[in-house]
Each structure stands twice: as structure tokens, then as C-alpha cells.
Amino acid sequence: MNAHSPLAGDTLVIAGRSYHSRLLTGTGKFKDLDETERATQAAGAQIVTVAIRRTNIGQDPNAPNLLDVLPPERYTILPNTAGCYTAEDAVRTCRLARELLDGHKLVKLEVLADQRTLYPDVMQTLIAAEQLVADGFDVMVYTSDDPVLARRLEDIGCVAVMPLAAPIGSGLGVQNRWNLVEIVENAKVPIIVDAGVGTASDAAIAMELGCDGVLMNTAIAGAKDPVLMAHAMKLAIEAGRAAFKAGRIPRKRFASASSPIDGTIG
User: Fold this and answer.
1) How far apart are CA 211 and CA 64, in angstroms?
2) In 3D, which of 1, 244, 17 has the Cα closest to residue 140?
3) Which residues are catalytic?
4) Integer Cα distance of 245 and 232 in angstroms
């Protein structure tokens, strides 16, 4: 985004740090690290999420290291707890990430209920969120699109709430937009859609509803051309945010002429 853009000063603030990009991307499912790097650059992402249990960021000195292509000096690395099914495992994984990343506090918490749906286990998520916040972590939390639960997670002290748009990897797009609107309108922390985006129009819709950002992985990595799709998602996020800020016209059941006849001569 250049300095002359109408959105130039419109930043996403998470845990006290400002970002000009509202597109957060994952680092899994790409064919290799080169594609990961090129897609991340095309997306314009500044925050990249990393599955600590599946990705090498230094645990194995003999394997390719993701941080070689996405260095922490350039990107905010967001360790996540993908693959965790209990609060205990999620908390342990976050503490491992903090150790690997020299005291890094920002984490993405997700505690899954089962392997078939990958829905969040909300009870275990609440337990883990309370423990991590008490332990000094800045917690961005994946959750269902339940407005009551979103408010509870905010009250616990999470720095961002990340409701799903649809099941992880489904590509179904935003399935319950009114729940998202309810969450957004009552939130005092960033609301970032996480999971379910399939294409650029899905991302634009999420942003038009007032969400502060979108995190995606499969929609980019699973595309026929991941780098081109990453670019498309970047533009969609910017367009959706601009449309939200501009304010859409009211929906009507009748026509309204672009060139009204009121006041015309003759």
C-alpha cells in the first residue's frame, strides 16, 4: 500500500504493534519453501502463522528452516497450536514456541475438538486462553462464530479473536455473516476471520462486514497458482476494507435512478 492510498493510515493494531497489511497467511501445504516465500510476498503479509508441531523453525538443525525464507526481522512469526486437542497440549506448545523464538509472546491458540470437523473445542480453548494470558502470552484465539464466546475470550484478555467463517480448509466462504457482524460490533479487540475462505470474494465479504483482517492458508496454498491467488487475496482484502470504510448504500427493494429527473429542465 503506497503513501498516497486512502487506506495508508488505516492500520491493524495487535498487541500494541501496527501493521499495514490485514491479510495474515499460513505457511503450510505449499510444495516447498520457495513457493512459501513467493506466495507470502505476493500476499503482502506481515504476520505469518507457523504450526509449531509440523514446521521446523530450529527444532531440527538438519532440516530446512522456515525462518531462512521468512526471517523474524521481516515478518511477525505467529506460532500456532494446530494439532492440539487439549488445553494442556496447547499451553505446552506455546511455551515451546516461546523458547524457540527467544521469548516471543504472540501466539495463535487453537484447540480442536476432533479430526473430522476441526471445529474448536470451546471449553478447552477457554481453559488454555486463561492459562496463557496468566502466563504472559499475547493470545490470538481461533474460535467458533459464537458472539457470546467471542466476548468471553476478549474478557479473558485475548488480544484478537479469530472466528471461523466455515470449517478449516472447506473453502465454503462466510456462512453466517450476521454472527460475524454481531461479534464485530461488540468487540474492543481486532476480529480476524480464520478458516473457510476459498477465493478472493470470500475475503472481500469478510472485510466488508467490518472484520479487521483475514487469516488464510489453504485458499492460497491449495490454488492451482498459489502465488497468483495470494496476489488476488491481497487485492480483495484491500478492496473489502475500503468498501467497509466508504460505507455502502442501503439495500432497497425498488429502483433508484443514477440520474434522477427531479429538478431537470423542461
Assistant:
1) 35
2) 17
3) 108
4) 20
Q: Taking the chain, what is the end-to-end CA distance rounded to the nearest angstrom?
A: 48
How far is 79 from 98, CA to CA, in rounded Å? 9
Closest CA to 142 of 207, 188, 90, 185: 90
Continuous segment of H or E residues that includes residue 35: helix 33-43
Residue 221's nearest CA partner among 154, 169, 161, 152 is 169
Q: Side by side, which strands form the sheet with 213-216?
A: 160-163, 138-143, 106-109, 76-80, 47-51, 23-26, 213-216, 192-194
For 125-147, how does the pLDDT look when each residue is reduced to its tens digit (9 = 90+)? 999 999 999 999 999 999 999 99
- What are the grid coordinates assigned to 143, written together? 474460535
Distance CA 13, CA 190 (A): 8
Maximum Cα–Cα distance across the chain: 83
Do 107 and 139 meet the contact criterion of CB atoms below 8 Å apart? yes
Rg of the Cα atoms in the chain: 19
Alpha-carbon distances, residue 253 vs 138, 256, 259, 261 (angstroms)? 46, 10, 18, 20
For residue 232, give every residue at least 6 positions away whose Cβ sits within 8 Å of its Cβ, in sequence order, or none: 199, 200
Cα–Cα distance measured from residue 180 to residue 164, given in angstroms and rounded to the nearest whole number: 9
Q: What pLDDT, in 10s, does the model give residues 35-85?
A: 999 999 999 999 999 998 888 877 778 888 889 999 999 999 999 999 999
pTM of the model: 0.91
Beta bridge partners of 51: 80
Quick check: 264 pLDDT over 70? no
- Residue 94: CB atoms within 10 Å: 27
